[in-house]
Design goal:
This protein is an alpha+beta fold.
Length: about 150
Amino acid sequence: MFGLISAQTQPQAGGGIDIMTILLFAMLGVFVFMMFRRNKKTQQQQAQLQSKFAPGVEVMTSFGLFGRIVEINDDENKVLLELSPGNTATVHRQAVTKIVEPVVAAEEPTVVPNDASSLTTDKADSAATVNDAPRDETPEETLRRLNDEGKKDS
């Protein structure tokens, strides 16, 4: 009789799926969905880029090599790049990752002054008394002279 009571009061194991298992599978599903979505976007961008390939286009490869497309072999997925006049390299079509746009020159170059006078216009008056000191004056003499000038102004 005591055996039946103790068996009924203990919870039964393996009786169903708990909420944590459901959440785990839901998170796994979201993760897999996001992975496939990102991969699909990357493939679309690569296809769009490769549709713009034509002889004469300036490109950059995935390993940082710049060149101009000379020839495209669709059967073997190869691109012949001219790196410099007379020098060519053959790379896989997927190694070409970026089309290089020509740099447009700025209309007006930025002028940088040779000195910092335009940056220190507020302190020009206070610095004038220090700059008027003779070059061979010691720091102690400069302080004494500035104190004497301050007493005269008062």
